[in-house]
UniProtKB/TrEMBL annotation:
It comes from the Bacteria. It comes from Amycolatopsis halotolerans. This is L-rhamnose mutarotase.
Length: 110
């Protein structure tokens, strides 16, 4: 099943507060159904997170990143999730507003 044009790919970086690694992974073991539905309604096709120590790297495939942010801003499921997750994050060392700048990628074969 396709969703139209190719999605935007966005990389994000967040950082955990020291000692929150295990809790963060436990919280992500089961994503609430209402949050899953909200993300999909907002155009998210895929969201992956890798962790290196306290650093979290997110790779998001989304129809439109800015529209996604706008749609989720007032969504009760995302508001509840952000409250839960932000308690675990070092928000002074996180950048989720605009994403990371792409430096290089292996071009697709012609």
């Amino acid at each position: 099943m396709t969703h139209g044009p190719a999605p935007q790919t966005v990389a994000l970086r967040t950082r955990l507060k020291p000692g929150m690694e295990k809790i963060y992974e436990e919280v992500h073991a089961v994503i609430p159904g209402d949050l899953d539905a909200a993300l999909r309604r907002a155009g998210v096709r895929s969201w992956r997170i890798w962790r290196d120590g306290l650093d979290l790297f997110h790779f998001v495939e989304v129809d439109d990143f800015e529209q996604m942010r706008a749609k989720l801003a007032d969504d009760p499921a995302d508001i509840a999730w952000q409250k839960r997750i932000n308690a675990l994050l070092d928000l002074d060392h996180s950048d989720v507003a605009h994403g990371l700048g792409l430096v290089w990628q292996l071009p697709a074969e012609a």
